[in-house]
Amino acid sequence: MTHVAHIPERRARTVEWPKWTPTELRDALRARGVERPWTHQVAAAEAAHGGRHVVVATGTASGKSLAYQLPVLSRLLTDPRATALYLAPTKALGADQLRSVSDLDLAGVRAAAYDGDTPMADRDWVRAHARWVFTNPDMLHRGVLPAHGRWATFFRRLAYVVIDECHAYRGVFGSHVALLLRRLRRVARRYGADPVFVLASATVAEPARSASVLSGVDCVAVTEDGSPRGARTIALWEPPLLEDLAGENGAPVRRSAGAEAARILTDLVVEGARTLTFIRSRRGAELTALGARRHLSEVDSDLVERVAAYRGGYLPEERRALERALSDGRLLGVATTNALELGVDIAGLDAVVVAGYPGTLASFWQQAGRAGRAGDGALVVFVARDDPLDTYLVHHPSAILDRPVEATVLDPGNPYVLTPQLACAAAELPITSEELPTLGGAAAVEALDALTSDGVVRRRPAGWYWVAHDRPHSDVDIRGSGGEQVAVVEADTGRLLGTVDPASACASVHPGALYLHQGSSYVVDDLDLDNGLALVHAEDPEWTTVPRDLIDITVVRTLREERHAGVSVCLGEVDVTTQVTSYLRRLPSGRVLDQVPLDLPPQTLRTRAVWYTVSADLLHGSAPGGAGLVPARVPGALHAAEHAAIGLLPLFATCDRWDIGGVSTALHADTGEATVFVHDGHPGGAGFADRGFAALVPWLSATREAISSCECPAGCPSCVQSPKCGNGNEPLDKAGAVAVLDVVLRAIRADATATSA
Q1: Which residues form the Helicase ATP-binding domain (predicted)?
Q2: Which of 45, 366, 391, 711 is 20 to 30 A from 316 (CA-CA)?
Q3: How, if at all, do strands 111-113 and 132-135 pair?
Q4: pLDDT at residue 579 greater than cutoff 90
């Protein structure tokens, strides 16, 4: 245990109910135990009731639901014609909030779900009769806006739009949702409505600005939290080194965060503590639940069935059953991905274990806040992965406990987002010149010109009209995964086990890959990318699989460049070509059984990157200011610096290392010098490289600190080794990386000092 922090309790601050609250609503809330609302709930409700767009940004479990329920339900009760729309980033959150409203049992509200799980027979009723529709951006995009004529009555009366957990809308997904909300507003205006937007988030920096960029309307922020909070203990935990095991290239290895979390989860369940354990990956959640169940079988077999895994990719009925069991206490411990970071309001949780930094401080505090609800005390344990950022955080507690959360990064002007969204908008309603400023301005004109050249949009005096036969909505993936999900199907039975993001299919469900689902293991027989299908068979081998790939990067366009003495720093567009060429079969001990070649197609990604170059004189020079590296050490030094920089960028942008990638080379064809690239992992970019360019000095400073402070002699997963390296973490030169970062930072700081002088 590297650090323990105690956060004291906070007392509630309450006020009287707003005078405009209907008596039946006030009585229903009091019957649920809400005698008086908290100050921030009324502040947000008053703003929304007065017609102001508002974002309530207070702590986890601070009752933000009531902040939007008050104005929405009051309007629905006093105006029998009014309607409202609720958007959640996950189905679990939407279902939970629908239950909360339905339990109030208010006559005439008629709240209903309209998402992918809604039976077809119920959808017509929802369109015709529901007054508060609970849905998600995906269904709004594919099922509501394309058929807005069938929703005419609903849109004509639309008074409020609620956007819950708005900090979840970041990167490419957030950029899509920002334009989706603009599409929603223009459809509502078409029917004569101008709804008030109410946004909620427990964790977002600059909430008014972030909410305004997302929604497209000017929002006021309510941030003073009047809710009570129980005392909370936060422990930072670093797993021990394994003396009898070495990793790649003989590097020291720590016990995995998942294995450590399984042990902690076991202890907490034995003590009767209701616990959520957050794991970074679907596979990790399955393995952690299996590990805890195995440990519990040695202690108390009755507890084995009270632990389960929960993750995305489960079928709807499986998710609902697990949510009910967790909510009513039949499950004591759940190992989950971030699928439960938002959503199900599980009262009475005692502890949260966060196994591996979730990528952003916003997500960390959201996960930590899942325990100790209703003002109770809670325990939060952060277990570090063998990773540069995690190691940095457990040894620099202020970086996780005292820093403000990151600003949300999204870019609605990304042409890979803007063009398909404008195609959808034109297919819904002709786009007029007056609408262009809110839809992207000059970038929107450029995108519409491209659609016109493609022959799917036609420019007429009144605007741009969709003229293609088929609507574009089904081809536009707002989650940014680049296409339809790949279905994972058991070949013998035809049973659908789950789905995989198409961008990661070659790495996760290639032929021969081990695939886990609800504690059962399967081996992939065939991957059909054209038809989005991976066929598997049940098998329980002793090995796991690790993909290996080749990556190449080409500079398409340099957007910004800063030159220093021997160092240049750039931001621009790049093409990243990746090809999975083989995979390793590895035993739990870390020993590699073999390497199996694969024949999979290369995939090219046009995105944005930040990169820096270093001159040969600086790299090889031994005089003061030079790195003093012989040519043979340069590739390993750059490679190690690249790995560590990828690991530390999440400190400065709302991303995690799986949102970004990197390439380093001793002589790049496009720059003519030694170059380190860090690129966004999404088409067109998601804003992460831009944030890295803006924060280059603190980012590279933290990277250098993480490498130099690590106790390993020559590089390990805690500093310069990467779990996603396609080259098997070869070559790597830890000391060389520090030398490279020193000369880069020295050159930039020297220019900054000269400029300020």
Answers
A1: 45-222
A2: 366
A3: parallel
A4: yes
